[in-house]
Amino acid sequence: MSEAERLHRFPYGDPCPGYEGLRGQDHGVWAGRTMDEVAAGEPDALRLWMTDTAYAPPGGGESVDALVARVGAALAGLAPGTHRPVVGQGVVRAAVVRALGLPAAAFWRLDVRPDSVTTLTGRSGRWNLLVGQPQE
């Protein structure tokens, strides 16, 4: 499988060592399939998932609402200091939605470049955002 093919598949809810709440989104039975494969077999379910943030992929998948809540709780629970977890694009989108107080539907309007750095800084529950920095 090429790198491009790998990047276009639903991930398996990749772990984030040391930051359980920042693990990747659970895509249920869609994990490992491309969006085109899911669209060909389950077009209505895919449409629902991309338009209704409360809809979870079949087979125990996680809704966008649930992902944003989980990631938000993980951010709120971080100890003071610098943290550098390596997370997937969906987790970055969820963190940005939560940190900036955006509606969950904004999740689908955020594009996150692979292998880029997103930085959230703040105190007392107020977050600032720096996006799209290249990795060093």
Task: Chart the SSEs and their pairings.
Layout: H1 3-7, H2 35-41, H3 43-51, H4 64-76, H5 89-100, E1 116-123, E2 126-134
Antiparallel strand pairs: 1-2
Helix pairs in contact: 2-3, 4-5
Structural commentary:
34% of the residues lie in helices and 12% in strands. The mean pLDDT is 87. Strands 1-2 form a two-stranded antiparallel sheet. The longest helix has 13 residues, at 64-76. It has 5 helices and 2 strands, in the order H-H-H-H-H-E-E. It has helices spanning 3-7, 35-41, 43-51, 64-76, 89-100; strands at residues 116-123, 126-134. It has 136 residues and is of the alpha+beta class. The two termini are 27 Å apart.
Provide a quick synopsis of the model.
The protein has 136 residues and is α+β, with helices and mostly antiparallel strands. The chain contains 5 helices and 2 strands; from the N terminus they run H-H-H-H-H-E-E.
Biggest sheet, in brief? 2 strands, antiparallel
Taken from the alpha-carbon principal axes, the silhouette is: globular
Number of strands: 2
The overall average pLDDT, rounded, is: 87
Number of helices: 5
Helix content: 25-40%
Q: Assign the structural class, choosing from mainly alpha, mainly beta, alpha/beta, alpha+beta, or little secondary structure.
A: alpha+beta
Strand content: 5-15%
Through-space gap between termini: 27 Å
Roughly how many Å is the radius of gyration?
15 Å
Descriptive labels:
136 residues, alpha+beta, two-stranded antiparallel sheet, 34% helix, 12% strand
